[in-house]
Design goal:
31% strand, alpha+beta, six-stranded mixed sheet, 2 domains, Ribosomal Protein L25, Chain P, six-stranded mixed barrel
C-alpha cells in the first residue's frame, strides 16, 4: 500500500548492518511508476544494461545484491525494473521536491611530458608532504571528514592555498605539462580529463587528492566584483571574461583556495565507484543524502528538452551539496563542454530502492 505521508529513510534500512559511513536521514516519499514523468518512454534495456555495469562496484552490490544477480538473466527489462524496485521521491530538508541539475564533462587538454616555453603549467600528483588524518577510529561521527595539512615542526598546519602554491616548490611528481592555466583550472573543477601529448598519444588523468581548503566558485567572485550578472554566469561566460582580462586571471583563480591533485589512469573518465562514466546516465550526488551506487530517476530540462530517465549515482563533487542536487556527466569534447557549461535546470529526483520482499513477484 502506498504511503501518503513523508517518511524518513536511511540507507541502513536497505543495507542492514554495514560498516559503510551512515547516510544522514533523507526525506523520501513512496511513489508509483505511473507517477514518474514520461516513464513509458524510457529505454529500459539501456537503463538495465547500465545498472548491470554499476553492479561491478561493491557499493552498488551492497544496495542491490539480490537484484544484481537476478538482472543478469532477465528478458523483459521494463517488467523486471517495475517488479524489483520501488520509486521514492526525494525531498530537501524543508520538504521541497525540486532542486538543481548541472552538468560536467571530461576536458581535453594539450600537453607535453617535458616543460617548454608553451607547455609550462604542471599537472601534479598528490604532494609528498600532504598529510591526511582520518579521525573516524576515534570519532565515529567524523567518518565523512578528513583533515588535510602539512607538518611544521610538530604541528599540523593547513596546506598551501592556490596562491601560496604558485610561489613554492611542490614536492610532487609531475604527470605532464599543459599550455593553459585556465584549462588546467577547469580540469580541476571537472575532476578528470584527457591530455593529448605532442606525439599524438592520449593519457587519462583523474582525481587523486585535494589540498584541504574549501571549494569556492569563481563565478560568485565575478558577480561580487561586478564583472558578471548572476543570471549570466556559466562556464562559457567565465572563460570569456578570463580571456578578455589576462592580467586578472590569477586574482580570480586564487579566489578558489582549493587545489586538486591528479593521478594517471588507464581509462577515460571514471567516477567515485571506479567505473567508466556513461554520458547522460551517470550523475554525481551528495553522498550524505544519496548513497553512491544507487539507481535514480530524474526529470529536468537539458538542451531545451524535457528529459526523464534512469541514472546512476556513480560520482561525487565538491560543489554538489544537498538531497535534490545532481551533476550529470555529458561526455568529453567541445559539444559536451558547451552543454555542461550552460546546464542549470530545476530537478526532480526519485531513488529506486529494492522492493520489500513481500511485494516482489519475482
Amino acid at each position: 500500500m502506498k504511503l501518503t505521508i513523508f517518511i524518513t529513510i536511511t540507507i541502513l534500512l536497505f543495507l542492514g548492518c554495514s560498516k559503510e559511513p551512515q547516510v544522514p536521514k533523507t526525506h523520501f516519499v513512496e511513489s508509483g511508476f505511473d507517477e514518474l514523468p514520461n516513464w513509458d518512454k524510457e529505454n529500459y534495456d539501456e537503463a538495465l544494461s547500465n545498472f548491470l555495469n554499476s553492479c561491478k562496484s561493491k557499493k552498488t552490490k551492497k544496495i542491490y545484491k539480490e537484484i544484481c544477480k537476478k538482472a543478469e538473466n532477465t528478458k523483459d527489462a521494463k517488467l523486471f525494473i517495475q517488479q524489483e524496485f520501488s520509486p521514492y521521491k526525494i525531498y530537501t530538508k524543508n520538504l521541497k521536491g525540486e532542486g538543481l541539475l548541472t552538468g560536467y564533462y571530461e576536458p581535453e587538454l594539450q600537453g607535453s611530458l617535458k616543460k617548454t616555453e608553451i607547455f609550462k603549467y604542471p599537472i601534479y600528483e598528490t604532494p609528498e608532504d600532504l598529510i591526511i588524518v582520518d579521525l573516524s577510529s576515534i570519532y565515529p561521527d567524523l567518518k565523512h571528514y578528513r583533515l588535510r595539512g602539512k607538518l611544521k615542526g610538530n604541528k599540523l598546519i593547513p596546506y598551501d592555498t592556490r596562491k601560496e602554491s604558485a610561489s613554492k616548490h611542490i614536492p610532487a611528481k609531475i604527470i605532464c605539462f599543459t599550455d593553459s592555466k585556465i584549462n588546467l583550472f577547469f580540469l580541476e573543477i571537472q575532476g578528470s580529463g584527457r591530455v593529448t601529448l605532442r606525439d599524438g598519444k592520449t593519457i587519462f588523468i583523474g582525481y587523486g587528492n585535494q589540498n584541504g581548503h574549501k571549494y569556492r566558485a569563481i563565478g560568485k567572485y565575478l558577480v561580487k566584483i561586478g564583472a558578471l550578472e548572476l543570471e549570466e554566469v556559466s562556464l562559457q561566460t567565465i572563460r570569456a571574461w578570463l580571456d578578455r582580462n589576462p592580467l586578472r586571471v590569477n586574482e580570480v583563480l586564487n579566489y578558489n583556495k582549493s587545489v586538486v591533485y591528479f593521478k594517471q589512469r588507464k581509462k577515460s573518465a571514471s567516477g567515485s565507484l571506479g567505473l567508466c562514466l556513461t554520458p547522460m546516465r551517470s550523475i554525481a550526488v551528495d553522498r550524505r543524502y544519496i548513497p553512491l551506487g544507487s539507481m535514480l530517476y530524474l526529470n529536468a530540462d537539458i538542451k531545451g528538452e524535457n528529459v526523464s530517465k534512469i541514472v546512476l549515482a556513480q560520482d561525487t563533487g565538491g560543489a554538489i551539496k544537498g538531497a535534490v542536487r545532481a551533476d550529470m556527466f555529458l561526455g568529453y569534447g567541445k559539444d559536451a563542454m558547451n552543454i555542461a557549461g550552460e546546464l542549470k535546470s530545476p530537478l526532480k529526483l526519485w531513488i529506486l530502492l529494492p522492493k520489500k520482499k513481500e511485494e516482489s513477484k519475482i
